Amino acid sequence: MAEIKRPSPICQRCLCEYNRIQEAIFWSRIMQEHALFIKLGLPADQQEFREIAQSFIDKFMDLRKRLSKVSRLEGELLDDLIKAVKGIIAFKAKLLRLIIECNAAPGSNYPLLLDHIRREAMRYLNLLEKPVPRDPLPMLLEEEVIWLRIMKEHIEFIIHLLDPSERELINQAEELRKTFSRLLETARDLESMAETKPRSFNTVMRFTQNVIDNATRLRDFKGAAFELARLCQLLGIVSTPLLLDHVRREADKFLDEMEVLLPEVRRCSSSEQHNFIVPKEYGQKIIPD
Questions:
Q1: Which of 26, 27, 107, 119 has its Cβ near the most Cβ atoms within 10 Å?
Q2: Alpha helices in 42-103 (DSSP H)
Q3: pLDDT tens digits along 186-195
């Protein structure tokens, strides 16, 4: 069965829910590639870990083939996916723990990289186990906090994988890092403010459009870096051009989610404002003539 691209999340009547089959298709490929990147980053003498990483590559490849043949995610396939994701979470956590304790050489697997991909796997597991319809505003802000941290760390990894002679690219990446650090701080602030459950929060809509504009700029930067690596025009220690394509696809996923959630927040906020009666005293001047 050919893959049919459907939006995720899906929104209706001011409730949004992730399309579990589409999330599984996307994130299973991400998990397979995580296993590959771990394997490529492991020292040559860590043969046992390299074999475990290869087993996850094979496992998620098989799960992706099975996903391509179904239109619903349930039963044995869902159970096998959950088991595989729990397994790779444990594997990533074990490697990270050994490196933190100085009981294993890191190779080229940065501790933060292992934690980064562990968090992504935990998010995937949560999507598989607990797909719950939610109000679009808190969902939008939660996703912005999650994705902005992911994007910021992508930039940091790219900076450390580029050769020092790639000064122009490093300078571009540094500017992006500063931007996404600021955006992440603001998203966390707005998420906290939204806990008061305001009827509308127009600042979030303005902020999210700014996030989309900057995420598009970052996506294009990643795409350009991938093309340079693919054409052997990039100096650095990127293990495979696939790594740069991988982070570009995650930026696309971030943008896809924002393009679904932002219009829903606008629509629901507009409805709330239309039904909201302004108290009489709000029409009075704060400072008398």
A1: 27
A2: 47-67, 75-100
A3: 999 999 999 9
Q: Read off the tokens for 110.
A: 């940065």
- Chain segment 140-153, per-residue pLDDT in tens: 999 999 999 999 99
144 shares a domain with 35: no
Neighbour tally for 33: CB within 10 Å? 19
CATH number at residue 157: 1.20.1260.120
Q: How far apart are CA 272 and CA 134, in angstroms?
A: 16
Average pLDDT (216-230) is 98
CB burial class (10 A; 0-12, 13-18, 19+) of residue 167?
exposed
Which two structure tokens, joined as six digits, stand for 100? 């933190």
Indicate the SS3 state at residue 180. helix
**The total number of structural domains that make up the chain:** 2
Are residues 114 and 21 located together in one domain of the fold?
Answer: yes
Are 156 and 110 contained in the same domain? no
Cα separation, 63 vs 27, in Å, equals: 11
- Claim to verify: residue 204 and residue 229 sit in the same structural domain: yes
Which pLDDT score, from 0 to 100, does residue 130 have? 79
Asked whether residue 27 carries a pLDDT value surpassing 80, the answer given is yes
Write down the pLDDT at residue 1: 40
d(CA 258, CA 252): 10
